[in-house]
Amino acid sequence: MRRAPWWVLLSAGGAPLLLIGASAISQVLQGPAYNPVVDTLSILASYGARAYWLMTGILLVLGTCYVVTAHGLREAALPGRIALAGGGLSAMGLTLVPAPASGGALGHGVVAATGFVLLAVWPALAARRGKRAVAPWGLRFRVSVVASALMCACALWFVFELRSGKAPGVAERVVTVVQALWPLAVAVSCRVWSGEGPVATEQ
């Protein structure tokens, strides 16, 4: 099995750094009226927002990072790589349907939800299975399923907070950061993997 190339660490590591850094800068630019506890990241990228162009550019680069990482994770199963790339394309697609400054938008919601789902399920889809399969720890079946379950739980928490209105900003930041960090964890495990490991017995 081919190892992931060195540059996959750059694309995988760039995603969380860009996401956290850009959102922090955008929050400062937006000013004190923006409340990160209840206000979502979409507001920072909405038409008329002070950080609109910054967040739009970051979404394009973030999506590119996911696509490049999916291409470089050669050890991962193909369905998972496709889902990860799809999540990246969804991030880029958000620039075409930005959220309004207030209220909801169906197109934005559909694209965002698609991205959340794809980035939540890609670990499980990327896992290596089979009686003779060996894989880096980040692509082992049980680890991958737990990662997907955690991301799904975070996404459901975000949906709950959107409905309750108490802390959707916090929930969104948690789920997006977790989803951005996992490709890096998988990439690192692939780079340090010796090519040996426990035999996977899951079917």
Account of the 3D structure:
The protein is an all-alpha fold. It contains 7 helices and no strands. It has helices at residues 8-30, 41-44, 52-72, 78-93, 106-126, 141-164, 168-192. The model is unreliable at 198-203 (pLDDT under 50).
Structure at a glance:
With 203 residues, the chain is mostly helical. The chain has helices spanning 8-30, 41-44, 52-72, 78-93, 106-126, 141-164, 168-192.
Largest β sheet strand count, sense and barrel closure: none
Radius of gyration: 17 Å
List the total number of helices: 7
Report the β-strand fraction as a percent range. under 5%
**Low-pLDDT windows of residues:** 198-203
The tally of beta strands, per DSSP, is 0
Mean pLDDT: 90
In helices, the fraction of residues equals 55-70%
Tell me the series of helices and strands, N- to C-terminal: HHHHHHH
The computed structural class is mainly alpha
Shape: globular
First-to-last CA distance = 19 Å
